[in-house]
Structure formats: C-alpha cells, structure tokens
Amino acid sequence: MKYVFTNGKILNGTKDMQVQEGQVILVENERITEILPAEEAGKRNLKASGYEEIDLQGKYILPGLINMHVHLAGNGKPQKKQRDNEALVKKIMSNGLTKAIAYHMVCGFAKDELYSGVTTIRTVGGLGDFDTRLRDDIAAGKKPGPRILAANEGISVPGGHMAGSVAIAAGSIEEALQHLEIAKAQKVDLVKLMITGGVLDAKEKGVPGELKMAPEMVKAVCDKAHAMGYKVAAHVESPKGVKVALQNGVDSIEHGAKADEEMIALFKEHNAFLCTTLSPALPYALFDRSITNASEVEQFNGNVVFEGIIDCAKAAIANDIPVVLGNDVGCPWITQYDFWRELYYFHKYVGVSNTFALYTATCRGAEMAGIGDITGTLDPGKCADMIVVEKNPLEDIRALRNVDMVVSQGKVLRSPKVKKKQIVETELDKFL
Fold first, then answer.
1. Are both 111 and 244 inside the same structural domain?
2. Could you report the per-residue pLDDT of 24-66, keeping only the tens digit for each?
3. What are the start-end ranges of the E strands in 29-85?
4. Which of 41, 58, 123, 409 lies 20 to 30 Å from 230 when distance is taken between CA atoms?
5. Which CA distances in Å does 180 have to 217, 223, 403?
6. What is the pTM of this model?
7. How far apart are CA 55 and CA 77, in angstroms?
8. SUPFAM superfamilies annotated for this entry (predicted)?
9. Domain count for the chain
C-alpha cells in the first residue's frame, strides 16, 4: 500500500492551519512518509517505485476527525417515550444469540463513524466488553472501523446515570474498585464515571446533573485508576458535579456546566480538560416539544444543560483550558454519522472560528487522548488518517457533511456511503 496524493489542497490540522497547495502526500503502509513540493515529487519516478497516484482534483485533504465521546450501542433513533434501557440491555446480554446480534449492530455503528470521516473514537460507556473486543477486531483487520480508545462499561451507582445499561451500578466503593479490576482484565484504554444525572434523569425543573456519586467513591476510583495507568473521564452536568469531579481526581469533564472562578481554578490545578458535547442537549433545548415528545420539565432542563455546556466551553477557551469535542452519539437524534454537526455547533454557539473547530476535532483531540504522536495532524511519521472533501471547511464546516474519501491507517475508502435517517436530517438541519 503505497500512495501518492496529488493535486490536493492540504489542511494539516494545526491551530493556525491554512490551505497549502502545490504539495503531495506520500503514504506507505499505515504512515505518511513525506509531504513535499509537487515539483520535487515529479522528479522522482514514484510510479516505478510502486506508488499508486490518487489525483484529488483540487479537493481538500485533512486529518480524519476524532470523536471523543461515543456510545457505540446507540443509533440515535428518536424516541416517542423513554425506554427502560436497563431492562433492554439485560435482555440483549442474556444469551449468546442476542449478544451476537448486538455485537454485529455495534460493528455497523463503528463502520458508520469511519465512513462519515471519523478515524478515531473514544468510547465512554458500552455493552459489556464489546468496545475493547471491536477495537481489537478492527486493529487486526477483521472489521472496518475507526481507531478505538475504549472504556467499555462505565461506573455509575444504583439509580445513577445509565446504571445497568452502559454502566454498572456500584453500590459501594469496594464494588467500584472490583469493576476496575474487570476493566483492567479487558484491557480498557480509559475509565468512565457517571457522577451526576443527565437531562432525562431529572424529575423537577432546574435540577439536571444532580450529584449521584459520593465524592469518596470518585476519589477512590480515580486514585486506583491512576495507579493502574488510566485516565478517568466523568459524565457531569452541574456546577457541583464538575467541582466534585475535579476535586477528586477526574482527568476530563464530559459535557460541563456553567463555570465560575472556582471551577476554572480546579481545571487548571488538576490539568483537566473539557469534552464539549453540544449535540445531545440541543434537541431538548431548542426543538418544539411536539417533535421531541419531551415533557416541559425535560425541555427546561435540556435548556439548562445546553446553556451550561456552552458557558463552560466559552470559559475554558478564555482561560486556556484544553477543549475537545464529542457528540455523545447514541442519544436520541444523535447518529453515528453526524459528528460534523458538533463542529458546526461549536462554531455557531460557542463562537469559535471554523479553523479552531477543526483543530479541536483533530490535533487537539489527539493530544488530549494521548495519541498526538500517532494521529491528529498531517505530518511525516504519523498515521495516514485522512479525509477528502470537495469544499473548504475553513470557510464552511458544513463541507464535512459529505466525505469523498476516507484514509484510515493507510487504507483508502473511496466514495464511502452511510444510510441516513431522514427525520433526523430534516429536524437538525433547521439549526444550521
């Protein structure tokens, strides 16, 4: 697998990236070997050296996107009413046949991520050990999909967020620590905690993100996870939850909440980063309730969370706290192929430039995931994780909606296609 990509407009993924023309990209096996002027490449007989030319015909080539908050068990299908996820997962995982069907489904969702231009995902709560299993199947070439950094099941508490579905319900610190041993045996890449409730967990107005996990449990899990060499990500959707998480050792805040000086100081003190997720709260906050089938309480709380996430992202950026992007795929209305919308919302609601949004979803994501030496930018020596689009995403992020080519660890996928949900497209497009 030796390719030379010619006639492309290069966006390298760095913070100050600009369009680079007149250069070619050489790829051998999984890696970018050289980026050099087209004239210099023309002087070499690359074809005789076994390179296949891929003429990009003036299209834009950039790093593959990095989705830092994924639940591979969900498809984003809108729900008329809340499901009993715990009962559903218990049924799915109860026998070999249904487990096999579920794993096949998860594999399909990972393929959708890749075919839509996402070459790396970070999973933060899944079914059993499916995520590490699929990670290894993809790495071995048995399944198509993005690079996976996997947490497998998260750790919640009885009655806590996602307890019994994509997280175990730890009734004590001892149980939580026992699960860490299981996660270690499964060779996870990170640990996920569900510290607060979510939008749909709250039963009253104004109380989304209610603290569910005791600070003592957060600290015990973080201490042991760090001793094992793992970073800890935490679901938190309230100011109190964010502070408890940071005070007790969490490395990344997933979602966030309205920030104050104390919160900013804690982020800096603990060298934590923020994973902004605007996509899941937007439908509950901004859709008409006749579309979402949300109650008045759910819509009110959705707006509280949505505004809190926006505020947290703005405060983090203003205070040089690292921010990455995830779209919490699996939540209603959030599909496995729509990560580009998260970049668009980041630009629209947080107010960053298109360049900064793209940098956040490529280079910055890789750095914060601990794989900045492997992927995230187009540089010699790094993995050939690239996507090709017709128009310039620095001018309009919506250019990422249609991907003409995906290169994943040196493997070229031409004209990738995913099956889209029309109702989701129609309703979400109203907010572009």
1. yes
2. 999 999 999 999 999 999 999 899 999 999 999 999 999 999 9
3. 31-37, 52-55, 60-63, 65-70
4. 409
5. 12, 11, 38
6. 0.97
7. 38
8. Composite domain of metallo-dependent hydrolases, Metallo-dependent hydrolases
9. 2
